[in-house]
What does this fold into?
Amino acid sequence: MSDITVLGLEGTAWNLSAAIVDEKDVIAETTATYMPASGGIHPREAAQHHANHIARVIRETLKKGGRDIDAVAFSQGPGLGPCLRTVATAARALALSLAIPLIGVNHCIAHIEVGRWKTSASDPVTLYVSGANSQVLAYRAGRYRVFGETLDIGIGNALDKFARSVGLPHPGGPKVEELAKQAARYIPIPYVVKGMDFSFSGLTTAAQESVKKNSLPDVCHSFQETAFAMLVEVTERAVAHTGKNEVLLAGGVGANARLREMLGFMCQDRGIEFYVPEKRFMGDNGAMIAYLGLLMYRAGYSTAISDSGVNPNYRPDDVEVVWL
Ligand code: AMP
Ligand code: MG
It folds into this structure.
């Protein structure tokens, strides 16, 4: 039997991306990035961006791929409603016109599966840190369970919001990381872990206040040290609880060298493996959607058009893992 080939569409927020993968690798990928003219991501503007570019992005990907595809996968959620609906409409149209199965996938789980595919991680505790999402996940008894998560905004969103309030352009995460390198001292910022969950909105407000009295690099440094320590604490407790011996980092905030260093130290101290995929597979990308689609397709799963509505609050633990 020849390799299964799946086209995946990602467009939950700022990044519109189509990719074709087979069981071995990514065959083709095309991306169109929405950049807000000012401020943060505007859901309707982002959706309009995706609508303007999606036909071209799909066409170019199919052309680069140069082969027939077996199924069309798309991000069914979580994400921004208008963006999800735009991309889902294109996915349905494509699957119907090619008369091939449609597969709605959970965006968070796609981050985990692409990480497992592109590193040697097999059964990790995953720290998924992106603009909108912050979760600690691990597989147990047929599902990816959420062991801890943000009670309000995602860590990326918190960094972007803070950065914007001090006049830095979107996305703020990388700029905060750069400024933090020039810091001279740590300023206490509220550390909020409740049970296994964390919260970033109070910390963001405190950092915004702190800039009035302290240098911007010092506040950037203190923001990172505090927020990342919260994430590492919960990840470590999930490792201890599950007894797993691998940690996987996923999501756009995973590009941050200080977060990687802190997680690396924790893993080293516990004598467990730490996996970080290549950067192109960390932020939102079409390949991860295509790959999870491939796993689900291979397991015999497909999504009826009548069940293909999007879910902006789609939780990873809602999904029965049929492919492992
Ligand atoms: P995603 O939603 O997974 O595509 O990730 C986007 C988020 O990652 C945005 O909030 C960015 O500010 C954040 N981000 C990207 N690079 C970095 C970095 N080096 N440090 C911290 N956050 C980052
Ligand atoms: Mg994401």
